[in-house]
Amino acid sequence: MRKIKTAISATCLLIALFSTFITFAQIGGTNSYSILNLKHNARNAALGMDFLPSFCDDIGVAISNPSSISPLNHGNISLSYTNFFGDINQASIATAYNTKNIGTFALGLQYLNYGNFDMTEENGDVTGRFTAADYVFILSWNKMLDSNIYIGANLKPVFCQYESYSSSAIAIDLGVSYQSDDRTWALSFLARNMGTQITRFAIADATLPFELQLTASKKLAHAPFVVYLGLNNLQKWNIREEDPLNPRDEVDLSGNVTKENKFAGFTDNLFRHVQAGVEFVPSQHFYIALGYSWKQNREMNLTDAFSIAGLSYGFGINYRQFRIAYSRCEYHRYGSPNFVSLLIKL
Question: Does domain 2-345 fall into CATH 2.40.160.40?
Fold first, then answer.
């Protein structure tokens, strides 16, 4: 009963803090600072999950969910690199330090470079070159309320520099996690990217990609598998995009309109809220992971063409105090990013 009351109290605290910031994180038609939604660790990317609820010894994984950071991450250094499309590259670094009474702290930096661009006049004459990049600095804190309930927070200053134009924002993540006594299953609720823009590129204001998410994991008792399930965008039911060039209602040459099947539309929208992954861990030295996102598949799929968009997969190998992980996310049939992460256990 005490643990249940503690869990309720932690959730109420999260809701109270969430209410303070929600006015600064309204959902708009288009959000800026999309770097806040990018996966930056190979294991997360392989499972197709934005964050994992269970404890792990990789701070590069745990920092995405501050309520899952633990003393296991003390002294770890995580390095990650992602090759997206063309000259777009991403890199990140994270480390953690545990204190006896205050909790566990983590520091991270996420960097996204969009490559080099030609600077031209109106007539097309090239006058120079410029670059564009985004930066996210992460300060994390985690505290154990009791042996099962953990709370955490991320403070994330964001800075964007495109040629001579710049913009900045401040984002906050608040999370609460429940870990079972035997650590075979876990549950996390996270309010991501609450905050506001500080400086802007031009006249128009920008909104942050605020999101409420719930994620669970279960380690099977008699098989070396861990199953993950995530629910995203809990703050908004309809997350289907509207494409004027590809409307869901069909119109024939006579102008007759055939409405989309309501059940099909409901099912499509429902599954866009779901992330799923499974991890095969035959030993402490190796794992294979597989994930799938219906939302990504629907948004990146090509009409009348086979596509495995939304599928992700990868593996990790442990050797002494090192772990190297690789994953690939099938964004589109003509291009998919590769993630590589290195964990150093000091």
Answer: yes
